[in-house]
Design goal:
Elements (H helix, E strand, L loop, with lengths): L11 H27 L7 E5 L14 H10 L2 H6 E6 L3 H12 L12 E3 L5 H8 L6 E5 L9 H8 L5 E7 H7 L6 H8 L1 H11 L4 H17 L5 E8 L6 E9 L2 H14 L3 E2 L2 E2 L2 E2 L9 H5 L3 H12 L4 E3 H8 L7 H13 L4 E3 L16 E3 L12
Parallel strand pairs: 1-2, 1-4, 2-3, 4-5, 6-10
Antiparallel strand pairs: 5-7, 6-7, 8-9, 11-13, 12-13
Helix pairs in contact: 1-2, 1-11, 5-6, 8-9, 9-10, 13-15, 14-15
Protein name: Three-Cys-motif partner protein
Length: about 375
């Protein structure tokens, strides 16, 4: 399978990836524009940059991510006046096809800034360019055909500026194999950092496939965080049989609000959940009949209850604060915290009261509810 054949028909995972990116762009751009309106002295532009854009459509006519972004922008006057869209693909045929496809989008003339189509190899020259620029708020999407061009420097070159977030989609199997291939050591070192890549190589020997995947994704997320305050959120894609991981989509932001928005979007695109806790995974096998017993054996809400009692022992804080302080780098979303705290309250393991001095309303747990956790250590032994 070569690069161009990928676009012959849109795989389900490509559709889900595109939906996640487009949904985030929609919410992110609304938040950024709202902020810009409050500070008119600052730049009133926002940007979307895609360095591996492809031809814009699959052969079956399905829109790929660039067309989804532009179609969304055309429908919103504020976005039409602000959006600077930059698309790049090193394949000249892809660039020409994308340019023609964009010109045919109904209403494309509404955009104040004509989309820019480039035809460059992604490498050090582009990284140097971004590093030397002060970027307007930018959503940066990197979807390489393998791993060439994808590096920590590339990601950080955009994230350094205010309002800039990044998503990158990578072929997990190629990177997994690349870590043990001396011929691509340079690319792996650029992606993980030389020291972290060497450490990872030494740890991967004699590990199970599941352990290997966790170690690789964790190392990549930690490498990104090493550049400064970063929130990272991975979303996994399984192959058509649901047996092996094919790709990961990694989201990176400097701001909790962006992390929170993307967590909500990815949770909704997950194909399964356990007790309401999303899998953060697209797995075609999830659409098949499930083994009920397997799901009953997993009790993530019980785990959350125990962890909350230990983490916040002796503290008094609001439900919203509990969620904000605890949810980063966990699979839990805000409704999971409301459910867990409600159960803890019903089991008389925590005290809870509204700002007006009233108990929580039945079957609910508002963000303003003030929770008091007991001081006793090892409270998890009491959890029913």
């Amino acid at each position: 399978m070569n690069e161009n054949s990928f676009f012959k028909e849109q795989k389900e995972q490509s559709l889900v990836k595109s939906i996640i990116v487009a949904k985030y762009f929609d919410v992110w751009s609304t938040v950024i524009i709202s902020t810009q309106k409050r500070y008119p002295q600052h730049s009133q532009k926002i940007a979307y940059i895609d360095l591996f854009a492809g031809p814009g459509r699959y052969n079956d006519g399905s829109q790929s991510t660039p067309l989804k972004i532009l179609t969304n922008a055309i429908e919103k006057p504020d976005l039409c006046r602000r959006l600077v869209a930059i698309f790049n693909d090193k394949d000249e045929d892809n660039s020409k096809t994308l340019s023609k496809t964009i010109e045919e989008i109904p209403g494309i003339e509404k955009l104040k800034y004509k989309p820019q189509i480039d035809n460059q190899e992604v490498g050090e020259e582009i990284v140097n360019k971004f590093e030397s620029m002060n970027l307007v708020p930018t959503l940066f999407f990197v979807d390489p055909w393998g791993y060439k061009g994808l590096s920590l420097r590339l990601v950080n070159s955009v994230l350094k500026d205010w309002g800039c977030d990044c998503l990158f989609f990578f072929n997990y199997n190629r990177i997994s194999m690349g870590l043990s291939n001396p011929l691509v050591k340079e690319h792996m070192d650029a992606l993980f950092g030389r020291d972290r890549a060497d450490e990872l190589r030494s740890k991967l020997a004699n590990t199970s496939p599941e352990e290997r995947e966790l170690m690789i994704v964790e190392a990549l997320c930690q490498a990104i965080k090493s550049y400064g305050s970063r929130y990272t959120l991975p979303f996994r894609f399984k192959d058509s049989k649901g047996k092996r991981t094919s790709h990961h989509l990694i989201f990176v932001s400097k701001h909790f609000r962006g992390y929170e928005i993307m967590k909500d979007i990815m949770s909704r695109e997950s194909t399964s959940d356990t007790e309401g806790v999303p899998s953060f995974e697209y797995n075609p096998a999830d659409f098949l009949p499930k083994q009920t017993l397997l799901f009953q054996l997993s009790r993530p809400i019980d785990d959350l209850k125990k962890d909350l009692l230990d983490t916040f022992a002796g503290q008094r804080l609001t439900m919203k604060k509990i969620y904000e302080e605890h949810n980063v780098d966990t699979p839990y979303i805000i409704k999971n915290y409301k459910n867990a705290l409600r159960v803890l309250y019903d089991e008389d393991l925590i005290d809870a009261i509204s700002p007006k001095g009233k108990p929580p309303r039945k079957n609910s747990f508002a963000e303003t509810i003030i929770v008091t956790f007991p001081r006793q250590e090892k409270q998890w032994l009491q959890v029913k």
